[in-house]
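#structure-requests
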Amino acid sequence: ADEIIFVSRYLVTEYKLDRKKVTIIPNGLRSDFNPSIELNLEEKFDSKKILFIGYLKKKKGLYELLKIANKMPGIPFVAVLNCSVQSLEKFKYQVQVPENLELYASHHDLQLLYKEAFLVMNLSLPDACIESFALTILEGMFFGCPVIVPEIGGHFQYFDSQAGLAADARDVEKIVNFITGLQEDFCLWESYSVQARGIAEDYSALSYRMRVNEFLSRYC
């Protein structure tokens, strides 16, 4: 290849293609995400709803999710898992699902869940699964959700510590303490929320198209 496009600096570092001409074009948000959407921050804060979106796989931190939910019995957790209904039912039969954790094999309106959520978690285990970009994190940030992210991965293309917490999912106490601190302090939570939304605005579908068009213009 004469030129290689990556979606994050992390991938560039991992592939170490020093002799290649490399361009980074970060992923963009879905085109149906309205950049002028209005959020009710007070309602989001009061909901205390923790959202997890991922695959029904151990490497995605499913068992860590169960532990976190168990330690916070008064807090509602919602997990939307990319799997069949049959696979989800089998998983629920094999584990003890906390009463405060709702599990869905799919959901018809993810945007509504993002809009209502207090916080979004990505619990991928870095020694088993490193996110190349983690678009669901960015989607959560777009809807003003502070985020919990793995300590390594492509999401550091856009994530910073003012938008949430970077932590190993197995450090359950650290994650629980962070969430608890946010739940007790609206101003602190709001500062993370505003920072997250501000970052995500730079990754709209329109911005993505502009970056791609700028790249293609070199060859026109």
